[in-house]
């Protein structure tokens, strides 16, 4: 593993100079602070350096998997390079994280710095759990040209930036090449015609080539990708109405249901059974998240990655992003506030190293660099899709809205409800929730 240097350029990959330091013990270190603290002010607000006295920072996140182990190593290296700022990392399951964080902030015991997904930011911002951090983006000289539009606009809620992006994690096509070879499929499909042709050849060999999951992970993400590919969207422009029941939505969901009806997929696919079948050479194509890359590479079966095929008329890929945020009242100490900003600066400066945890770097230059495309070539298909990635809209309480979609999607895939009726009913319910949440969150 490559060693991290504290002041490496955001666009430079790092030379190999030995292993990173050992993992940190997890410890809760949030200092008490009086209500009303936090915000985009204070000493060293930009965070390009830290020259204050020694401080200890609490860093909370939900990285419970391999990315958490990687983050611990990066934090350990930061601590070694910056003895005046010692970061203690607490890791929680995401569900627990969002129970603990608001309560900790309200009591004045919140962490000094945190990470969350883009779709969690609006709700936490509306509830004043996190604070705007526009000055960090300005000091780091973020420019719109450095990012794909979805990445640039991500982390912004009601005109203020609350998140600093460090990665993109999106959906991609996982391909069991052993099965393609068995069926005489010479190349990975890129559009509807080649995809269906491959499925027909696989079916002629007794292989159900595209198992359709009725669950959010990752069947519903497949539907959302298809919705965008057919030219639709989840909500209207002002985020007041659910629009997934459009003609595009019906086309997308009908296409998926037909895969089941026509025998390209078994019925009643269990949670994660689509991916397990891929590994066991029973499923040839899996629309799956980047988080399975390392596991797929370790399998006996030859599994490779490719961009999602364009089934519709345009590109469309479900995606999300981890973003650094500053909790309100994380510290009433100006020195700790400045140190937290510096830690964000340091981590994002080493965004290229973070990509080794199976993430696409947030910045376009890093995605296109030869070090990334060669050194981490297995992630290249996911990076190629970034211009087509759609992030969840910046709507507070959006999880309540999408749950209606996920329930309806499952009902249609299990053929309990027609695609048109499932989408129509759920969109009407979701629109009511949007209106209620508007009053609730403002």
The rough form would be described as: globular
Bin the helical content.
Answer: 40-55%
Profile the largest sheet: 6 strands, mixed
Q: What is Rg?
A: 22 Å
Number of domains: 2
* Mean pLDDT metric: 89
What is the CATH superfamily of the largest domain? Periplasmic binding protein-like II
Low-confidence stretches: 1-45
By DSSP, the count of extended strands is 14
Could you characterize what this model shows?
The chain has 442 residues and is α+β, with helices and mostly antiparallel strands. The chain folds into 2 domains: 55-166 and 321-390, Periplasmic binding protein-like II (D-Maltodextrin-Binding Protein, domain 2), CATH 3.40.190.10; 170-319 and 397-441, D-Maltodextrin-Binding Protein, domain 2 (3-Layer(aba) Sandwich), CATH 3.40.190.10. It has helices spanning 66-81, 94-106, 121-126, 134-139, 149-153, 177-183, 192-204, 216-229, 247-261, 273-279, 293-297, 334-349, 351-354, 364-368, 370-375, 380-384, 398-413, 419-441; strands spanning 55-61, 85-91, 113-117, 130-131, 156-157, 160-161, 164-165, 167-176, 285-289, 303-306, 317-320, 322-327, 360-361, 389-390. Strands 1, 2, 3, 4, 7 and 12 form a 6-stranded mixed β-sheet that branches. Strands 8, 9, 10, 11, 13 and 14 form a 6-stranded mixed β-sheet that branches. Strands 5-6 form a two-stranded antiparallel sheet. Helix 8 (216-229) crosses helix 9 (247-261). The longest helix has 23 residues, at 419-441. The N and C termini lie far apart (47 Å).
């Amino acid at each position: 593993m490559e060693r991290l240097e504290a002041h490496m350029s955001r666009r430079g990959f790092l030379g190999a100079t030995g292993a990173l330091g050992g993992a940190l013990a997890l410890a809760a270190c949030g200092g008490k602070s009086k209500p009303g603290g936090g915000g985009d002010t204070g000493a060293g607000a930009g965070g390009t350096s830290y020259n204050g006295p020694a401080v200890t920072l609490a860093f909370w996140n939900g990285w419970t998997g391999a990315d958490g182990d990687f983050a611990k190593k990066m934090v350990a290296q930061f601590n070694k390079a910056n003895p005046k700022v010692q970061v203690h990392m607490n890791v929680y399951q995401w569900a627990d994280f969002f129970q603990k964080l608001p309560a900790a902030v309200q009591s004045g015991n919140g962490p000094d710095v945190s990470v969350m997904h883009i779709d969690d930011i609006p709700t936490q911002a509306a509830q004043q759990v996190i604070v705007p951090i526009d000055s960090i983006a300005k000091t780091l000289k973020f420019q719109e040209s450095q990012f794909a539009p979805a990445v640039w606009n991500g982390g912004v809620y009601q005109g203020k930036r609350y998140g600093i992006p460090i990665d993109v994690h999106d959906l991609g096509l996982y391909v069991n090449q052993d099965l393609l070879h068995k069926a005489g499929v010479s190349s990975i499909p890129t559009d509807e015609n080649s995809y269906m042709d491959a499925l027909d050849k696989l079916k002629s060999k007794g292989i159900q080539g595209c198992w359709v999951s009725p669950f959010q992970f990752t069947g519903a993400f497949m539907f959302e990708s298809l919705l965008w590919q057919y030219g639709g969207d989840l909500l209207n422009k002002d985020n007041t109405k659910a629009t997934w029941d459009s003609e595009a939505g019906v086309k997308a969901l009908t296409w998926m249901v037909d895969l089941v009806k026509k025998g390209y997929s078994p019925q009643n696919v269990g949670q994660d059974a689509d991916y397990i079948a891929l590994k066991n050479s029973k499923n040839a194509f899996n629309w799956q998240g980047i988080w399975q890359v390392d596991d797929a590479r370790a399998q006996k079966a030859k599994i490779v990655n490719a961009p999602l095929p364009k089934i519709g008329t345009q590109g469309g890929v479900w995606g999300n992003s981890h973003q650094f945020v500053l909790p309100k009242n994380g510290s009433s100490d100006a020195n700790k506030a400045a140190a937290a900003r510096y830690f964000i600066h340091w981590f994002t400066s080493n965004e290229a190293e973070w990509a080794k945890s199976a993430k696409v770097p947030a910045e376009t230059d890093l995605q296109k660099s030869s070090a990334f495309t060669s050194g981490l070539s297995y992630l290249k298909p996911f990076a190629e899709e970034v211009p087509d990635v759609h992030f969840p809209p910046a709507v507070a309480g959006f999880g309540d809205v999408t749950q209606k979609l996920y329930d309806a999607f499952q009902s249609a895939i299990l053929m309990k409800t027609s695609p048109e009726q499932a989408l129509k009913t759920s969109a009407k319910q979701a629109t009511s929730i949007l209106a209620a949440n508007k009053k609730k969150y403002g």
